[in-house]
Amino acid sequence: MHIDIARYENLAVEARDEGVWVVTLNRPTKRNALDANTIEELVDFFSTAPRAGVRATVLAGSGDHFCAGLDLIEHHQADRSPADFMHICLRWHEAFNKMEYGGVPIIAALNGAVVGGGLELASAAHIRVMDKTTYFALPEGQRGLFTGGGATIRVADLVGKSRMIDMMLTGRVYQGQEAVDLGLAQYIVEGSSFEKALELAHKAAQNLPLSNFAICSAVSHMQNMSALDAAYAEAVVAGVVNTQPEARARLAAFADKSAARVRANY
Ligand code: 1HE
């Protein structure tokens, strides 16, 4: 599989070294609002990435805001039927499921507004890094709308049902350390969230691809299963991953004491 960078209009797609790719929502004048075409481009990239040798992806937004959510102007002008919008939402799910279950680590570099569908997009990434400008909200209630890109699943999973309902009913905004404490992001940085996300992507890209595939696919699948089925599936995945020939050199390095040990941060 091959990623054709030139085919993207609303995304800027760039290959860095060590198999790390950077995907940037590239409509800053629209605050990177998600129109139908952007969603199709996300489906395309994240469907192709797992088979194109992508080892980790940084997902960022161009300009001062990560993403303003659903393109409200397009939605207003299209005056969609219920069936039309259902199909739009199914394409959002296609894109975000490809992200969450695709097996390639995705690190979201957040700044400014991460709101509505922008938070749905961010919550499909495996790691979220925020900076001091980042804020999270679900303004759907105020707009006469409802979430359609998986917030009832992923945002509720991150912050819990009650907090999500409060965010939607009252327009509550979370930012700063409180957002990390709630689980909306795993890192907050003084400087650039992009630099930190890139550092984390390079770190993840050092793992064997099959290990990352399991981490960025199996964990999510297993959360959807009964404990009994998840334990069975975990054993099967571990059977495949933990016996991969590529792991033998790493195990040998541990055995001969040349591999780094796990140490506490002091
Ligand atoms: C947009 C959008 C958008 C900006 N769709 N065009 N999401 C929201 O309710 C968030 C709506 N946006 C905002 O609250 C603000 O725009 C921001 C806080 C993100 C940024 O504020 P600001 O002052 O920097 O920008 P602005 O002046 O409000 O907007 C600049 C331009 O971006 C302007 O376009 P212009 O052509 O007049 O210059 C805006 O129209 C445009 N823009 N946000 C379209 N969202 C699957 S269901 C998901 C449901 C949802 O996501 S609901 C949440 C929608």
Task: Describe the fold and architecture.
The chain is α/β, with parallel strands linked by helices. The chain has 2 domains: 5-205, 2-enoyl-CoA Hydratase, Chain A, domain 1; 225-255, no CATH class. It is built from 12 helices and 9 strands. It has helices at residues 36-48, 72-78, 82-101, 117-122, 140-143, 151-159, 161-170, 176-182, 193-205, 209-223, 227-241, 248-255; strands at residues 11-15, 20-25, 56-61, 106-109, 113-115, 127-131, 135-137, 174-175, 187-189. The strands form 2 sheets. Strands 1-2-3-4-6-9 form a 6-stranded mixed sheet, sandwiched between helices. A 3-stranded mixed sheet has the order 5-7-8. The longest helix is centred in the middle third of the chain and has 20 residues, at 82-101. The model has no long low-confidence stretch (mean pLDDT 97). Bound molecules: 3-methylmercaptopropionate-CoA (MMPA-CoA). The site of 3-methylmercaptopropionate-CoA (MMPA-CoA) has 24 residues, from α2, α3, β5 and α5.
Short description:
The chain is an alpha/beta fold and 266 residues long. The protein has twelve helices and nine strands. The protein starts with 10 loop residues before the first strand and ends in an 11-residue tail after the last helix.
Identify the notable features of this structure and list them briefly.
266 residues; alpha/beta; 2-enoyl-CoA Hydratase, Chain A, domain 1; 2 domains; 6-stranded mixed beta sheet; 3-stranded mixed beta sheet; 12 helices; 9 strands; globular; binds 3-methylmercaptopropionate-CoA (MMPA-CoA)
Give me the oligomer status.
single chain
> How large is the share of residues in beta strands?
5-15%
- CATH class of the largest domain, please? Alpha Beta
Structural class based on helices, strands and sheet pairing: alpha/beta
CATH superfamily of the largest domain: 2-enoyl-CoA Hydratase, Chain A, domain 1
Q: Which runs of at least 5 residues are low in confidence (pLDDT < 50)?
A: none
Q: Enter the CATH topology name of the largest domain.
A: 2-enoyl-CoA Hydratase, Chain A, domain 1
Look at the structure and give the mean pLDDT.
97
In CATH, the architecture of the largest domain is: Alpha-Beta Complex
